[in-house]
Amino acid sequence: MKISLSTIFGFLLGFGAFIFAVWEVTGSVTQILLFGNAAAIAVVLGGTIASTMISYEGRYVRKALGTLMQVFVPTSVNAGSLFGTVEQVIKWGKVGARDGLLALESEFKQIDTEKDPFLAHCIQLFLAGYEKENLKQKLNTFINKSYERNMVQATILNTMANISPGFGMIGTLVGLVAMLANLDPSDPSGLGMSLSVALLTTLYGTMFAQLIFKPASRRAEQKEQIQKFKNQLIADGFLLLLSRANSVEIQDHLNSYLDPAIHFDIAQSA
Question: Are residues 16 and 81 in the same domain?
Fold first, then answer.
């Protein structure tokens, strides 16, 4: 499985900056241990997850939490895969123009659609013999509804990013109340340590929001936007196939999806 090096670098940079700041302020890396508090983490994470479970259906929350790990996996859609998709559609266009649309069925059987449900759906509808406008409507509905459905995870993670600082503040208030209730006027020496522990929950809530939940939400959203972009390219390709467009027309239309640096050129590929 591929790993997103940029994500790992981002995490290392973020936490590294935090450790460096602690070292600059305290003059000792060992002081990092003072920032570890299991109770504070439990308040922030437990409260955030509990609030999210109340706000959304449990199965969607579980999917969103699973998406947290997907932040380390880069999207499979890149310039190379888009170029390959354009090349494949142009190849199908040549077969369709030469042998007719029915000849495409044998071409489709050679494609592994197990990892691309949208491509499988396109092939199924194409072979069903729908008219162009009917096919276009069905493909656009699939694209938009899939996007909306998959964006729920990103929305939930963004909600968690908004919630966690609030529970950080709640933890701080709880800690302050407990500290003041047990304050010994004759011995104020423990006030500083107690106050620092109380403030840790605010720190955790902010860090979880800014370094985990919000970045994961943005990454999930970007992945879905990229996948929607590819699906639209594929849908346009099948509509062109149904219209019996020639290879040059398919090339010129689908190249509009690609970066100019990687435009497909039939003359060079011949």
Answer: no
